[in-house]
Amino acid sequence: MTTMRARSAKLQAPTMKHAQSQKGSVLVEFALILPVFLALLFGVISFSIALYDKTVLTMATREGARSGAKYVANRTNTSIKSSATDAVTNACQNNLISFGAGMTPTVTFNDDPISDNQLTVSASVNFTGVYIFSSLLISAKTTMMLE
Predict the structure, then answer these.
(1) N or C: which end of the chain has fewer CB within 10 A?
(2) In the CATH scheme, what architecture does the domain 28-145 have?
C-alpha cells in the first residue's frame, strides 16, 4: 500500500532585510494621498457654503419681493424699491457666509413696477471660497404681482 503525503505550504515570516525595505512605504503613500484628500475636503466645504449662500439669497429676494408687493396706500416706485431693498439687506445681514470680506448684496429691480403690475427683485453677491472657488458670483431673482 502506498501512502501519499500532502504537501503542506509553510508560511515564512518576512526576513529582516525585507521588513526594513517596506518601512517608509506607508509614509510615502500618505504624502501622495493627503493633498488630494485635502483638496476634495476643501472643495466640498466651499461648495456647501456657496449652496447655503444661494439659498439665503433666494429667500432674501423672496422677502424683498413680498415686502415691495404688499399693498400700501399712495405707493410710488421709489417707496416700493426702498422697501424691497431694506428687506433684502436685512435678510442677508448676518446670514451670508464668506471666507473673504463681508458680502453685501447688489439689488436691482424692473424699471416701473406699478405700470408693469409686478415687481422683479434680483440680488447678487460675490462669494469668496477657499482655493477652489476663489471668486464666484451668486445671484437670485424673484418676481411677484403687486397687490
Answers:
(1) N
(2) 2-Layer Sandwich (3.30)
